[in-house]
Amino acid sequence: NSVSAIRIQDPLEKALPSSGRFAVAGPDGPIWFDASNPRFQQAWQQKIETHEQRLADCLRASGVFSATLSTVEDPATALRLLLGPGGRIG
Predict the structure, then answer these.
(1) Taxonomically, which superkingdom (predicted)?
(2) Domain extents for the chain?
């Protein structure tokens, strides 16, 4: 048997907008951030890069093939293309 992982990713997970105030859902309600703050942008980008590297290392060490789908894609079409006629990724 083999294990595959399909990641669902929102564009905001990769790059924040360059300006404006935005809210994301938090455990106790919305958390607001100012996207025009360069220190916040830098900290966000560093956190994303670290997370992506750790996840890639974990999947690779476990022998898990992964693919990423974006929330901007039509899920049915994206899965059909990803899985192919055999219904498997990798």
Answers:
(1) Bacteria
(2) 4-83
